[in-house]
Design brief:
By secondary structure, this protein is α+β, with helices and mostly antiparallel strands. It is built from 12 helices and 5 strands. A 5-stranded mixed β-sheet has the order 1-2-3-5-4, covered by helices on one side. α2 packs antiparallel against α3. It is rod-shaped. The C terminus is likely disordered.
Length: about 375
């Protein structure tokens, strides 16, 4: 605001008021030959109003004094003299002074009110800044909590997978061997042998299911052989179970990444393929993974019915953290990445693109971290 800028410095207020007076006097000088003695008061009064409105009491009083002296000395007869010869001129000067006093009083009241408003606005801005800082702190804490929950979820999956494979799987293998031995001893009893054989087959199937669940929770190949081997194993199994043809494009020299990045990429592909099987009704899917310019790009595409913008918004806002689209986006964001969904919901399919920055760690360091 002009008033705030002028009022910041006292010297500026006086200089501006004086310049306004000079401009008004010059205008009076230009118009005096045409309008006579009535011009000075008409031309000087806007200068007084300007000073009262923007410059304050002191500069306004200075303008009034300079205006009266200048008008009498240069424009009111007898010119070049400060003597007031008649009553009409005295009344004119007095009327100008009274009107100027009223304008100065009104301008000062307005300036004080504006000053109060500026102070109140300043306090309000400070409170907004404090509330914004508190909100940023709360959001930061929430993000840290989400990251910790995702980390604990991965660790718990890894532990459960290891327990299922090492304990329950071994016991089921031993039970299977015992049942086969019992079956050999009971060959003469055809009915009993058939039941035992069926039981052994069920145990084998159960053991395979537990091994599959264990691998799905956290595939050992992800830690031992790296992301390419784990993805190929998972995609082959997914295609066999879901009857969805999946094409994987992955460079042969892709190499190893940090454990967090490989886990995030694997979970993203896993979640995308699961959603394709459950919702898209697409018979095919394509997974493309590439690394360049310090980033990894993961693209999963299908030819299904697609998702409408309303459905995308609902999935992004109503999901529970760690589950579905919102869980993928949160996991990637914790690692500095992003997730984009391109679909118009018109049966043209869906393309999900994830980008992740590659951490500045060598392959050897990543391998040694897994070994430890």
């Amino acid at each position: 605001m002009l008033s705030a800028r002028i009022s910041e410095n006292t010297s500026i207020r006086y200089v501006v008021a004086f310049l306004a007076t000079v401009v008004a006097l010059l205008a009076c000088r230009a118009l005096h030959p045409f309008l006579g003695d009535s011009v000075p008061y008409i031309m000087l009064f806007p200068a007084v109003a300007f000073a009262a409105w923007y410059c304050g009491v002191g500069p306004s009083i200075l303008i009034v004094a300079v205006a009266v002296v200048g008008a009498k000395y240069w424009f009111i007869t007898p010119m070049h003299s400060l003597r007031i010869p008649n009553t009409i001129q005295s009344l004119g000067i007095l009327a100008f002074l009274l009107a100027s006093c009223v304008v100065v009083a009104m301008g000062e009241a307005r300036r004080r009110e504006n000053e109060k408003l500026r102070r109140a606005q300043g306090k309000l801005e400070e409170r907004v800044k404090e509330r914004t800082a508190e909100l940023d702190t709360a959001n930061h804490g929430l993000r840290e909590l989400s990251a910790r929950l995702l980390q604990l979820q991965d660790e718990e999956r890894r532990r459960i997978a290891r327990e299922l494979h090492d304990s329950v799987g071994q016991m089921l293998a031993a039970l299977n061997m015992n049942l086969f031995a019992v079956g050999a001893d009971l060959e003469r009893l055809t009915k009993t042998a058939r039941s035992v054989t069926d039981s052994a087959a069920l145990v084998q199937e159960m053991s395979q299911e537990i091994r599959t669940i264990s691998y799905l929770l956290h595939p050992p190949l992800l830690d031992e052989a790296g992301l390419p081997s784990a993805l190929r194993w998972y995609i082959d199994g997914f295609a066999e179970r879901s009857k969805v043809k999946v094409d994987l494009e992955l460079p042969a020299d892709f190499g190893r990444l940090s454990r967090e990045l490989e886990t995030a990429i694997f979970r993203t592909v896993q979640e995308c393929l699961t959603n394709i099987h459950r919702h898209s009704e697409s018979p095919i899917a394509k997974v493309r993974i590439a690394r360049s310019d310090g980033h990894v790009r993961v693209e999963v595409e299908d030819r299904g019915k697609g998702m409408s913008p309303e459905k995308q918004s609902e999935m992004a806002s109503n999901g529970t953290p760690g589950v579905g689209i919102r869980g993928m986006r949160e996991r990637l964001r914790q690692l500095g990445g992003s997730l984009a969904i391109n679909s118009d919901g018109n049966g043209k399919g869906t393309v999900i693109v994830a980008r992740l920055p590659i951490a500045n760690t060598s392959v050897l360091a990543a391998t040694e971290g897994r070994a430890s």
